[in-house]
């Protein structure tokens, strides 16, 4: 028998209703994600991928259908989200931001301190612990956001285009760091991105979404061995064809949504 | 032609130029009030303006020293400061509490804001007769008058401050399971603080305006009383001492609040 999926989503539907007309943002999403799997969700803008993530994050309610996140420990939070840029609190220092989730759940002080320090070191921000976010670069802010999510030790991690606003160099460095922390903690991750490169590099499985109504229309397994290097992805002919595959699909979708 | 072979030297000169400009600006700021006083002194002494209405600054200073040594001035200043502080706190604290409630809970906001909007345009000073009837002519009525005029800018700015908190921070709080108390202390309060402080700055300015007028109407002491009685008795030097004191305290208070702002909002 196959092990129970970590995340199971069944016929999830989200409809936005506004003055006489309604828009179906998500149409019957059914999906299983295994424990420890890294899944990327790729699709054109407005295809509802952020909506899906926000429903899983408890920030929005679905119109119908259900989802379940398998729990392993009673005290562990269900999920933690890494937000797009601006997701860290400007009035808290780097350290307080990383400790935020643990403090909100009133964990013992020593535990908070220990985990916070561990992940501050992991993302290379120990030196900046007492600084406020205004003094940090975009890349450093996202490191804080990632450290906060991992420090909270949730069942699953949800990431909403965390590297979308970064330049390419920084983006690659952060992807690499993320993979290194992930491989250590073996968290289940659902990651949203626009970037096909990013999806191929990071994930075990890429899910393609179509727009209006948002549906998952294709799934592509990425079975390259880890640890990976970006160069491996670029030089691998199979990956190149997968890239084109996704690229063509997105083209069709973008064209389609323009009509 | 300049020596273009030495980039360090050109940058150094450029830096020096900027420094000089910076110093010049500081001097202008210091120079402007001094020059005003000098012109005043000159005009008054030369008889170009009537010295009875505009006594020269030196005469005002000597009157100031006289009043100070006689102990009269100290009495007026201390009583006015007590009224300002008490009234300020009595206006600011309920203003912050109600403002936070209005910002956090939409039903409270929708219920209270029409009342606030209706009462705000009425100058508290116009209510002074009623305040005197209710609270008598003692200290309480002055304190209440100041509190009444400080309250409005604080409550409005605090509520606006909470509403203006970026929704992504609310999402973060929810996603990381912040409880009611933590949400209030870690999100709502710090998030609204910058706009709230602007309201408090405004309240401080209004408190000074109000104290003078309130003491003119129903008091037997205070800086406003000093100004009013001096004017009635045509003691214009004494009146100017009072006016300058008000301007001095206004400046000191805004410096204090700005310092407080830097302490409370280090992340800006």
From TrEMBL, chain A:
Species, as recorded: Domibacillus antri
Keywords: ATP-binding, Glycosyltransferase, Nucleotide-binding, Transferase, Translocase, Transport
UniProt KW Lipid metabolism keyword: no
Protein name: Mannosyltransferase
A Pfam family per the record: ABC_tran
Entry keyword annotation includes Translocase: yes
InterPro entries (UniProt xref): AAA+_ATPase, ABC_transporter-like_ATP-bd, ABC_transporter-like_CS, ABC_transporter_ATP-bind, P-loop_NTPase
Ranges of residues in domain ABC transporter: 7-236
GO MF, one annotated term: ATP binding
Domain of life, source organism: Bacteria
UniProtKB/TrEMBL annotation, chain B:
Coarse class of the protein's main subcellular location: membrane
Keyword Protein biosynthesis attached: no
An annotated GO cellular component: plasma membrane
Matches recorded under InterPro entries: MetI-like, MetI-like_sf
Membrane topology, as annotated: Multi-pass membrane protein
Record-annotated membrane-spanning stretches: 26-43, 84-108, 115-137, 143-165, 206-228, 240-260
Protein's cellular compartments: Cell membrane
Domain ABC transmembrane type-1: 73-257
Pfam families found in the cross-reference section: BPD_transp_1 (PF00528)
Protein keywords: Cell membrane, Membrane, Transmembrane, Transmembrane helix, Transport
SUPFAM superfamilies: MetI-like
GO BP field: transmembrane transport
Family the entry assigns: Belongs to the binding-protein-dependent transport system permease family.
The protein, known as: Taurine ABC transporter permease
Source organism (scientific name): Domibacillus antri
């Amino acid at each position: 028998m196959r092990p129970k999926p970590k995340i199971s989503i069944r016929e999830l539907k989200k409809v936005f209703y506004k003055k006489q007309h309604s828009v179906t943002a998500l149409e019957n999403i059914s999906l299983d994600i295994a424990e420890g799997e890294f899944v990327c969700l790729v699709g054109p803008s407005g295809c509802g991928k952020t909506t899906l993530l926000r429903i899983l994050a408890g920030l929005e309610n679905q119109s119908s259908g259900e989802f379940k996140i398998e729990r392993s420990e009673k005290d562990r939070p269900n999920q933690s989200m890494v937000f797009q840029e601006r997701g860290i609190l400007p009035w808290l220092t780097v350290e307080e931001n990383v400790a935020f989730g643990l403090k909100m759940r009133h964990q013992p002080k020593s535990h908070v301190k220990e985990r916070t320090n561990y992940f501050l070191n992991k993302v290379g921000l120990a030196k900046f612990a007492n600084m406020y976010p205004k003094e940090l670069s975009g890349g450093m802010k996202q490191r804080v956001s990632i450290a906060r999510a991992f420090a909270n030790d949730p069942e699953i991690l949800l990431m909403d285009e965390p590297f979308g606003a970064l330049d390419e160099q920084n983006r690659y460095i952060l992807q690499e760091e993320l993979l290194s922390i992930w491989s250590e903690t073996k968290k289940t991750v659902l990651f949203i991105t626009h970037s096909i490169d990013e999806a191929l590099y990071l994930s075990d499985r890429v899910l393609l979404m179509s727009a209006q109504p948002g549906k998952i229309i294709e799934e592509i397994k990425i079975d390259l061995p880890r640890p990976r290097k970006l160069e491996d992805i670029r030089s691998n002919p199979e990956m190149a064809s997968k890239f084109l595959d996704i690229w063509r699909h997105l083209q069709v979708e973008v064209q389609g949504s323009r009509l | 032609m300049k020596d273009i072979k030495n980039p360090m030297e050109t940058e150094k000169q450029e830096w020096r130029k900027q420094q000089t400009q910076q110093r010049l600006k500081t001097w202008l700021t210091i120079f402007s009030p001094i020059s005003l006083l000098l012109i005043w002194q000159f005009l008054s002494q030369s008889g170009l303006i009537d010295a009875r209405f505009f006594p020269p600054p030196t005469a005002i200073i000597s009157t100031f020293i006289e009043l100070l040594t006689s102990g009269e001035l100290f009495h007026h200043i201390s009583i006015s400061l007590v009224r300002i502080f008490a009234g300020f706190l009595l206006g600011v604290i309920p203003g912050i509490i109600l403002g936070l409630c209005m910002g956090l809970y939409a039903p409270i906001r929708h219920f209270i804001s029409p009342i606030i909007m209706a009462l705000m345009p009425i100058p508290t000073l116009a209510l002074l007769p009623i305040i005197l009837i209710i609270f008598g002519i003692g200290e309480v009525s002055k304190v209440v008058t100041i509190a009444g005029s400080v309250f409005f800018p604080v409550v409005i700015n605090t509520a606006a401050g909470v509403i203006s908190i970026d929704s992504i921070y609310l999402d973060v709080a929810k996603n990381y399971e912040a409880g009611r108390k933590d949400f209030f202390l870690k999100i709502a309060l710090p998030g609204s603080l910058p706009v709230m402080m602007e309201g408090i700055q405004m309240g401080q300015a209004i408190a000074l305006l109000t104290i003078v007028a309130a003491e003119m109407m129903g008091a037997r002491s205070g800086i406003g009383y000093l100004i009013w009685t001096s004017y009635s008795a045509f003691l214009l030097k004494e009146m100017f001492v009072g006016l300058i004191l008000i301007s001095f305290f206004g400046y000191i208070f805004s410096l204090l609040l700005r310092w407080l702002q830097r302490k409370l909002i280090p992340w800006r």
